[in-house]
């Protein structure tokens, strides 16, 4: 087959299409003489394509169009949702607290990741190949690595802050703006560093399997590139996940103990409850348990497929396909949509501010009086219990 019919023009591909040298063929595909998924890749990107991908046939256009449509929906929802969170938190004085700056940082990470990635992903999917050149491919992968890592560690800081307030209570040092600034400087700088290192030779940013999205090279066979996959996912997945699980486990445990004490005290006082309007309301530990479990599961299901695919590229790359890689990438981006819901709409004062500044959204977030669980706390509770109840509502 002549190479003149492909986008690289007179530049021949590294080897005959569909038959890479010294590469075991994936038994699912038999592309000998039928072309390759790499056929449409521009000439300036060919040197970035791992020989592994040449064995796969061109993808069905319907798959690329489906991915593009899903990415478009996710992108619009994520950018608009996180913009609203940023606007409300930063424009409302009583929401500009040290703890809420962690939520602002999370929303900023999600907003920047999707604003900088989804337009290019959508256009490339509908063109069935990355069309923006090598520089934009590298920047695309860099933005995903930088703000993806920043997002994950922002979630970890939020979990740690709630752990300090609820588990340690008044024994913990109050969170100040100075302390938050230092925490965010460290975390955001840490994420930026991990995004930059591929530019200096430790791994690289390349078109992923379906050739419409760019990310780190997870199918490279050299030990140096593989070590990057091990290290970055240790610090950007396993350590944060372990920390989040630890924090929320002890939060639920502490709130359950607090609720048990409240019930015992109510029995001693011969009253049904120390809270007004407690009948018909879900107990605090159940509410918090649901939030904690939802937080962990959503985070886990969003990022785990992408992490598994990366490690499959290292250990079992014969089982990797272009379709698998692109859907793993899309799954990870879903987290940018639900984060505003979990960490924004579950915040009572945020709901009130949103209803005031954007009343057109009241049908989505509900009326503030219906959402603010803080009003159920009575004067019989100690100040420490009030703090715990506020964090439960948030």
Automatic annotation (TrEMBL):
> Keywords of this protein's UniProt record, alphabetized?
Chromophore, Disulfide bond, G-protein coupled receptor, Membrane, Phosphoprotein, Photoreceptor protein, Receptor, Retinal protein, Sensory transduction, Transducer, Transmembrane, Transmembrane helix, Vision
One GO molecular-function entry: photoreceptor activity
Q: Output the SUPFAM superfamilies linked to this UniProt entry.
A: Family A G protein-coupled receptor-like
The UniProt entry lists membrane topology as: Multi-pass membrane protein
What are the G-protein coupled receptors family 1 profile domain coordinates in residue numbering? 81-343
**A GO term (biological process) for this protein?**
visual perception
Its annotated compartments are: Membrane
Disordered, as annotated region: 373-394
Recorded hits in InterPro entries, A to Z, give:
GPCR_opsins, GPCR_Rhodpsn, GPCR_Rhodpsn_7TM, Opsin, Opsin_lateye, Retinal_BS
One GO location term (cellular component): membrane
User: What is the name attached to this protein's record?
Assistant: G-protein coupled receptors family 1 profile domain-containing protein
State the taxonomy lineage: Eukaryota, Metazoa, Ecdysozoa, Arthropoda, Crustacea
């Amino acid at each position: 087959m002549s190479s003149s019919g492909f986008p690289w023009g007179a530049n021949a591909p590294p080897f005959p299409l569909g038959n890479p040298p010294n590469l075991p063929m994936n038994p699912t595909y038999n592309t000998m003489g039928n072309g390759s998924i790499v056929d449409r890749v521009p000439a300036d990107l060919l040197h970035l394509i791992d020989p592994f991908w040449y064995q796969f046939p061109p993808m069905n256009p319907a798959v690329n169009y489906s991915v593009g449509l899903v990415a478009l929906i996710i992108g619009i929802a994520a950018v608009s949702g996180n913009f609203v969170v940023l606007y409300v938190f930063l424009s409302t004085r009583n929401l500009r607290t040290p703890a809420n700056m962690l939520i602002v940082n999370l929303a900023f990470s999600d907003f920047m990741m999707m604003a900088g990635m989804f337009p290019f992903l959508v256009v490339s999917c509908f063109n069935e190949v990355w069309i923006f050149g090598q520089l934009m491919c590298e920047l695309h992968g860099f933005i995903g690595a930088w703000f993806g890592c920043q997002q994950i560690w922002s979630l970890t800081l939020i979990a740690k802050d709630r752990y300090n307030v609820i588990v340690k209570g008044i024994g913990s040092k109050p969170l100040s703006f100075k302390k938050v600034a230092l925490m965010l400087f460290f975390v955001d700088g840490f994420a930026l560093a991990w995004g930059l290192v591929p530019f200096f030779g430790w791994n690289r940013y390349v078109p992923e399997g379906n050739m419409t999205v760019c990310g780190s090279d997870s199918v490279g066979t050299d030990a140096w590139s593989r070590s990057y996959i091990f290290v970055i996912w240790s610090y950007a997945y396993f350590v944060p996940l372990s920390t989040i699980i630890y924090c929320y486990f002890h939060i639920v445990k502490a709130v359950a103990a607090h609720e048990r004490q409240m019930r015992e005290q109510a029995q001693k006082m011969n009253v049904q409850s120390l809270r007004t309007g407690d009948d018909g309301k879900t107990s605090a530990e159940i509410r918090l348990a649901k939030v904690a479990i939802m937080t962990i599961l959503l985070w886990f299901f969003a990022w785990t497929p992408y992490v598994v695919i990366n490690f499959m590229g290292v250990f079992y790359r014969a089982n990797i396909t272009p379709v698998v890689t692109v859907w793993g990438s899309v799954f990870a981006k879903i987290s940018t949509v639900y984060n505003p819901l979990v960490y924004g709409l579950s915040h009572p004062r945020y709901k009130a501010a949103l209803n005031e500044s954007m009343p057109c959204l009241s049908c989505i977030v509900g009326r503030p009086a219906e959402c603010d669980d803080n009003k159920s706390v009575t004067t019989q509770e100690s100040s420490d219990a009030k703090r715990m109840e506020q964090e439960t509502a948030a």
